[in-house]
Hints:
Structural class: alpha/beta
Helix content: 25-40%
Shape: elongated
Order of helices and strands: HHHEEHEHEEEEEEHEEEHEEH
Number of strands: 14
Radius of gyration: 44 Å
Distance between the termini: 182 Å
Strand order of the largest sheet: 8-7-6-9-10-11-12-13-14
Amino acid sequence: MLSMIRRPKPAKSDPAPSRWAWRMQRLMLTPGFRLALRAGVPFCVTLLAGTIYLSDEARRGAIAQAVADARASIEERPEFMVKLMAIDGAEGQLAADIRGVMPLDFPQSSFDLDLPTLRRDIIGLSGVKTANVRIRPGGVLHVDVTPRVPVAVWRNEDGLELIDEGGAHVAVVTARGDYPGLPLIAGQGAARHVPEALQLLRAAAALGERVRGVVRVSDRRWDVVLDRDQRIMLPETGALPALERVIALERAEEVLTRDVARVDMRLGQRPTIRMNADANEAWWNVKTK
């Protein structure tokens, strides 16, 4: 009878994963989570180990010294050492000024040279227009300079100075006689109009050695200064044609060889000639007789 009683079959286990297993499987399917496991965890572990290791000041000092020694062993190799300096395009006082702004002790490692700063210091010199600084093979610091070429002596309220074609300062002049071959310009703002001044001086060369220079008047116009304190007063516009007109009058009638103090060409339609004091007095004496 008892054998006739059926025993219940044991329940089959549920093949579905547990809730936590399911969540873990979902996480493992996420690219970001897998990347964090592969890279993030090792990085954090390494960072923690490095922080613990470098927390000791002695260890940090030893590492810094080892890096400095390794760097010095590379930088001080013979092929990286600069032994001398060569300057092209400058000589005399300008070359001395360039060496003065580059107080370098040779030999010196090329890694210790700040070439842009050296170039900026050289260009800061008044006599230098452009400069190029580079290290040539063989340990030579090469400085290639384009100097400013003075074209005139400028007399201003501060004294005399040399200026180039752009009106830039080149050097201070102690005496006009030190540069007899350069023309003289004077007046406020004259350095900003050097090309025009040189053009007038080239035209005035027809008057020979009588020309003393040109003067900028009120930063508006020019006067051509001759010997015997004579002046040709030119207009603000059309200064060159007005000067050429005076030169033509001089050739035809020798106007400037007479007792003339000023030839005023500021009014093109009505040029004016002003006689000097002695000639004017003699003229009045003749007129009143």
